[in-house]
DNA sequence: CCACACTACTACACAAAGCGGAGTACTCCA
DNA sequence: TGGAGTACTCCGCTTTGTGTAGTAGTGTGG
């Protein structure tokens, strides 16, 4: 099974969840996601997701120079983002529950 | 959050799980999925998934006439399908676990 | 008898989203 | 000077679920 297909729609949620623990820039969010167990996430996917969420009005954004490399574009949750995170979490939990029920092998009656 | 995006990659798994409980034809699989809680699945998606899984060699297929309507194209799991179901279930469970950990709000230390 | 609903499937074009690859650019180190 | 690590952008590709339309069979209500 291809892990990348599972991420569809869920990467948004994962990125929002990571940002709940503090503002972060793309490369950093990528590291945090991989550390959390999403090891196969591609960098372009994370940058794309951040851009999309920002454009959707769920994130704030500010650029900060770094002394150890290129500038960093930080993103953080705003109210819309927190609401989206809460709502998406519910949707995800419900969906995951449905799937886990479906996956339980039925005993012969 | 769009439920349809969550289905990506998971619909295969859901269809395989439903077929584990007995052979079924497209319209029937659709009903079983909806009854299981996947209410927003579109019919074209199910037919497409069945075709894809069949072409991938995970399903057997045979046509049977029906007295209450058009003919029915039945699908059933073969060894490849059962293996795929087992493997995909593992992948899904691991993925869902990872996500649930990520979604837990961290307490201030 | 005709319209409609339900069943059952196919085909086609479309859209969303993750990915690979290339490119840019900065810092540090061998 | 040239790699490695950091940090980001852009483009085109692929997969996959969806909407719409079309075909076709059965049964039912006006």
UniProtKB/TrEMBL annotation, chains A, B:
TM annotation in the entry: none
Domain of life from the UniProt record: Bacteria
Protein name in the entry: PadR family transcriptional regulator
Organism: Kribbella turkmenica
Entry-linked InterPro entries: Metal_resp_DNA-bind_regulator (IPR052509), Tscrpt_reg_PadR_N (IPR005149), WH-like_DNA-bd_sf (IPR036388), WH_DNA-bd_sf (IPR036390)
Residues in Transcription regulator PadR N-terminal domain copies: 15-86
């Amino acid at each position: 099974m291809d892990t990348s297909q599972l991420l569809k729609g869920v990467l948004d949620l994962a990125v929002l969840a990571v940002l709940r623990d503090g503002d972060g820039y793309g490369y950093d969010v990528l590291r945090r996601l991989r550390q959390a167990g999403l090891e196969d996430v591609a960098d372009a996917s994370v940058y794309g997701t951040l851009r999309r969420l920002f454009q959707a009005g769920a994130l704030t954004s500010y650029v900060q120079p770094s002394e150890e490399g290129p500038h960093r574009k930080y993103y953080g949750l705003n109210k819309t983002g927190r609401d989206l995170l809460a709502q998406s979490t519910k949707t995800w939990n419900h969906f995951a529950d449905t799937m886990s029920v479906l996956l339980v092998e039925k005993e012969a009656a």
